[in-house]
Structure formats: C-alpha cells, structure tokens
Design a protein that fits this description.
- The chain has 14 helices and 10 strands.
- It is mostly helical.
- It has one domain.
- The longest helix is centred in the first third of the chain and has 40 residues.
- It is globular.
C-alpha cells in the first residue's frame, strides 16, 4: 500500500466515523433544549424526563466525539504536514475559534448535566441553549475551513508561500455560506430522523407511552423541518459549484461534454474509459436550468481538463446520487407526516407511518456520508483546490499501515461502546402513561 493511499484511507476512516458525532454535537442539544423548554412552559413531567434522558445521550456522544475529533486533529499534522505548514497561517483562525467553541460547549454541558436543582430553572435551560449554540458553532467553524480548501481565498502566493494574508477573507470565503448552511441543516435532519426512528419503533411496542410520544413529536418536527429546507441550500450549493468548481460539478452530474442545454441525469454509471455516462435517465435542459436558471446555458464538461486533474468520477457521481435520493426521501416522509398531522389534527402515529419513519432513520446518515464524499473526493486530486495536490501534501513518513490498523480498532471499539450505551438508554427509557 502506497503512502498516499494509506494516508487517504486513514483520513477517510476518521472522517466517516467522526462526522456522525459532529452531527450529534450540532443537533442533539437542540432536542434536549426543546424538551426542557416545553417542561418550563407546561410543567408536564414527561418533558422533564425526556430532557434528562436526552442529556445523557448528549454526554455520551460528546465524549466519543471529543476522542475522535482529537484523533483527527493529530492526523492533520501527522499525515498532511505540508498542507498544515502552508494553510495554517491562512486558515488557522477558524480552527482556533473552534477550540474556544468546544471548550464553551463543554463548560455549559457540565453546568447542564450537574446543575439540576443547583441553579435556577431558567438559568439551567439557558446553559442548555449554550450547549446547543456552541455545539453548532463548533461545527460551522470547521466547515468554513473545509470550504476554504474548496475555494481558497484571502492570500497571495509569493515564492511558493502564502503572503499578504487576510484571515477574515479566508474564513468568510465564497464557499463558506452555502457549505455551512447545507451541512448544518443536514446534521439537524440526520439526528432528527434518527431520534424519531428510535422513538417511532418504541411506539410500535407501546403506543400509550407519553415519553416516546413527546420524543417522537419533537424529533420528527426538527428532522422534518430541516429535510424540507435542505433542497433549498442544496440548490444554492450546486449553483455555487457550477460557477466556482466546475470540474467537481461535472463529476457530480456525470457531464463529460461542454454543452449548452445540458440534461439533468438521474442515475447512470460514468464510464471513465469511454468518457460517457451510461444508463442514466436524462431530463433535457434540466442541468443547465438548475445550475443557472437558463435552460440554454453552457455547462463545462470533464473533457475540458486532462484526466490527471479529474476526481474519481464514478464514486463522486454515485455518492451525489445517493445523497440526493436520501434527501428527497426524507423530504417526502416529512411532507407526508405534515399532511397527516394537518388533516387529522394530531400526531401522525398510524402504524404504517411509524414503520415508515423507523425505516427512514438511517437516511440522514447516508446523506451526510455521501455528501461529504462528494465534497472531499470531488476536490481531488487537490487538497487545496488548484493550489496544492494531495500527493504534495502527504507526509513522507513510512509505515502508515500501522496507525491505520490501530485507529480502525479504536473506532470499532468506540462504535461498539456507543451502541451499547445508547441501547441501554433506550431500553431503560421510562414508561410515562398517558
């Protein structure tokens, strides 16, 4: 195994694992805060019990996320020292601010977990708001750094080094807004649907349990609202990519030829040897219209760049299709649930719909993993787009297979630990009769 391949696999493994806990850190505290807020408003016991149960889940996920995040920070220096040497002075500010956000999140979480009956009720709730705000901020700050890798700005290159650096221009680069909006909503959708699926499944066993009914209602509302907004932010992201990252956009859509009135492709398999996308269902003029609102606009194709400057088109295209399919499936489930709630004026708890929500639980995580695959793999062969190739950023240190094996077992251990602890939380959830 080559050094570059080992480094990329190790980084991919770490990101695949950590991104799930990053989503939980951004979205799970909001569910907890909503539950306690409803308790403060109604004084109904089930909301207080729910807030305490979700707080325990937040603590578990926060702890494991802190471990996997720390591993990632070490890997950036270990695996990509040349990238860090070049990018650190330019984009170091959001990483530093993320550290402050993480510590503030930890402080507020400590107050929240140990402050029951020790601080005033509203102050306790505000500490939960602090956990939610700084947890989301932590994720957003990291995403701004990733957006800079896709759209590097805020510096000049003199003698091969970054000069005339503007940290704020780098942090607030042109890709930051769309990427932050879309990733944040995807986190809320993924966690909302996952939590709703768990409580929907428990309702199938005990329909009268108010604990699971309230949890299901809150989680489905949060996840459903985020799912309905995701196509809007996804559309903004796609339009940005068409303008600023046309090669990634072409790979996502399987567009080989530079073409006016380019079709939108559903499905299909990009054949990189024949330079064509086969078996796709094509909607005439669809891609040009979605990218520019002009059905006759020109879309640049992959043939505009040499093969060595193209990403793995097949993987990027399939990941993009999976992300879109999972996103629209969640949106359909959310619309259906909203329609049922409006028509019947009650919680959508028909048995068939509870099963549908239960089966939809993994969709958000599929969308998140596929979306980040598009973001990271679609930028290849560049670590910093058009500035530094991945092969130039990798460490010369040999024997990367060893840390790959070690971290694989670490992540497997953490994954089993999380599943056991959260399963115990669900099984031991209280029975609050109606």
């Amino acid at each position: 195994m080559s050094n570059l391949l080992a480094a990329r696999l190790l980084m991919a493994l770490s990101l695949i694992f950590h991104i799930l806990f990053a989503c939980a850190g951004m979205a799970m505290p909001l569910l907890m805060v909503i539950a306690e807020g409803l308790w403060l408003k109604t004084r109904r016991e089930e909301y207080l019990v729910l807030a305490k149960q979700w707080a325990k889940g937040v603590a578990v996920l926060f702890a494991v996320g802190a471990v996997s995040g720390t591993v990632l920070s070490f890997e950036l220096g270990l695996l990509w020292p040349r990238f860090m040497a070049f990018a650190g002075p330019v984009i170091g500010m959001p990483f530093s601010l993320e550290g402050f956000a993480f510590f503030l999140e930890a402080i507020f979480l400590g107050i929240y977990l140990y402050g029951w009956k020790r601080v005033p009720a509203r102050a306790h709730w505000l500490s939960g708001v602090g956990v939610s705000v700084f947890g989301a901020m932590s994720g957003v700050l990291v995403v701004t750094a990733n957006a800079w890798m896709n759209s590097p700005e805020g510096f000049e290159i003199l003698n091969g080094e970054a000069a005339n650096i503007s940290p704020f221009a780098a942090m607030f680069n042109s890709a930051a807004l769309t990427e932050c909006l879309h990733s944040t909503l995807s986190a809320f959708a993924a966690i909302g649907f996952a939590a709703a699926a768990i409580h929907a499944y428990m309702l199938l066993k005990d329909r009268a349990n108010l604990f699971h009914r309230r949890a299901y209602a809150i989680a489905l509302a949060v996840g459903g609202a985020a799912a309905l907004l995701m196509p809007l932010t996804g559309d903004l992201s796609a339009k940005h990519l068409a303008r600023r990252q046309p090669v990634k956009f072409a790979a996502m859509e399987g567009q080989w030829e530079t073409q006016k009135g380019a079709p939108l492709r559903l499905g299909g398999w990009p054949d990189e040897k024949r330079e064509e996308t086969r078996y796709a269902l094509e909607i005439p003029y669809g891609l040009s219209f979605l990218a520019t609102l002009n059905p006759h606009a020109e879309i640049k194709g992959l043939k505009e760049v040499p093969p060595e400057d193209r990403p793995p088109v097949g993987l990027v295209h399939l990941a993009f299709q999976a992300m879109v399919a999972a996103g629209f499936a969640m949106m359909a489930v959310a619309l259906l649930g909203g329609g049922l709630a409006w028509k019947r004026r009650r919680l959508p708890d028909a048995r068939w719909y509870l099963w549908l929500v239960t089966l939809s639980g993994p969709l958000g995580f599929i969308a998140v993993e596929a979306g980040w695959t598009v973001t990271e793999v679609g930028r290849q062969p560049w670590t910093i787009s058009k500035i530094m190739r991945t092969s130039e950023a990798v460490t010369p240190m040999p024997w990367l297979v060893a840390p790959f094996v070690v971290f694989t077992f670490l992540y497997l251990f953490l994954a089993v630990l999380v599943v056991v602890l959260l399963r115990r939380q669900v099984i031991q959830s209280p029975n609050v009769p109606a």
